[in-house]
Amino acid sequence: MSGLFLYFYFMELHELHKRYLECQGVCTDTRKITKDCLFFALKGDNFDGNTFAKKALEKGAKYVIIDNQTYQESHQTILVDNVLLTLQKLATFHREYLNIPIISLTGSNGKTTTKELINTILSKKYKTTATLGNLNNHIGVPLTLLSMTEKTEIGVVEMGANHQKEIEFLCKIAKPDFGYITNFGKAHLEGFGGVEGVIKGKSELYDYLISLGKHIFVNTEDPIQVEKTKNANTITFGFSDKTNHLNIQFLDANPFVSLLFHNLTITSKLIGAYNFSNIAAAISMGDYFKVSDSDIKNAIESYTPSNNRSQIIHKGTTNIILDAYNANPSSMKVALEHFSKQKHQNKIAILGDMFELGSEAKEEHQAIVNLTNSLDIHKVYFLGENFYKTTSKDTKATFFKSFQAFEETINLNTLNNALVIIKGSRGMALERVLGLLD
């Protein structure tokens, strides 16, 4: 091993950070290499990033981080014990180097929408950097932190989890100063071990912030949030408690959520009363960070949902609510209840399986079927093996074991002149329904 390469092998974290600052961004996929980036050769179940080290350099990476000496190429190759651990440690080092306020949020439903709203509002006054898409896990959080620059004034970091201690781990990486939990619902029940496990796991964000005397935004309409933050430095919002730091009045959700804030009426482009709390949380943070009321109003009213999240799409005579990014029993329930209240003569629901429910999968899918029986929805198509195992005597319900079976059987004319909601877990990829309507 050359002397130069030995130097890189024993490089201290602050020296590695200097190399990082020389680079133009971070990359973990050679298909997305940009000139002068820092490439981390991560491993996956079916690949070893070390084998792509040479390719990354050839495509323009300035430095490559590897953990297998076999793939040493030049002084541009930095050998470490563990690439993933180095990514995480470097992200924390960079976060401390920047020393800016970090807002972290998690929750069972609505965290990505809330994160987008927060970022939209705060960016009216500050240079912000927020989690891109849903890069919210043990890799995504470090990548988010490393996407922040010396120009970033506030960081917004989304944290996802499907088991205990995951949020705790992500907090140690991001070291947030502020936190918010959107809600506690029936998501990832298999990994968390039931709803109580979800509450415990998500509350790891509270535990971290409370232990350091940091600040927590609390929706006082949620009794779990109130109970879990009794001993915290809280910034409260809601509509019924006069002691709140900020009160926001819900006005309507037909078809879009509107609310009253500091005597300003705000009409969003988000459907469903369940999105009121997401908007209110973002407004609360904007208010705390002294974004002007007019900028908050403009930010909320200009935000348009995307990425299969509560998107409104028009296909000929069909109006579609595309909410196919993900689903769990809690989000499915509120979405269907909202949908049933819409005024239309032909309301159709296309619903896909909900994943990661473990032993509760059968019961939860049957509960959704039972719910649709009682709602004002004219036709329901259930797709997936879990829904296929349920039963219903309601003539408006039709079951398909797979998307392919639905595709081969469905008469698309039934979707004409209709209001349609499409919702299911990510693995169902129900946005494919749009392709059938082209």
TrEMBL record:
Cellular component terms per the entry's GO annotation: cytoplasm
Catalytic activity: D-alanyl-D-alanine + UDP-N-acetyl-alpha-D-muramoyl-L-alanyl-gamma-D-glutamyl-meso-2,6-diaminopimelate + ATP = UDP-N-acetyl-alpha-D-muramoyl-L-alanyl-gamma-D-glutamyl-meso-2,6-diaminopimeloyl-D-alanyl-D-alanine + ADP + phosphate + H(+)
Enzyme class, first EC level, given as a word: ligase
InterPro entries membership: Mur-like_cat_sf (IPR036565), Mur_ligase_C (IPR004101), Mur_ligase_C_dom_sf (IPR036615), Mur_ligase_cen (IPR013221), Mur_ligase_N (IPR000713), MurCDEF_CellWall_CoF430Synth (IPR051046), MurE/MurF_N (IPR035911), UDP-N-AcMur_synth (IPR005863)
One GO BP: peptidoglycan biosynthetic process
Protein location: Cytoplasm
Keyword Ligase attached: yes
Domain Mur ligase central, first and last residues per copy: 106-285
Superkingdom in the source lineage: Bacteria
Function, as annotated: Involved in cell wall formation. Catalyzes the final step in the synthesis of UDP-N-acetylmuramoyl-pentapeptide, the precursor of murein.
Family: Belongs to the MurCDEF family. MurF subfamily.
Protein name in UniProt: UDP-N-acetylmuramoyl-tripeptide--D-alanyl-D-alanine ligase
Gene: murF
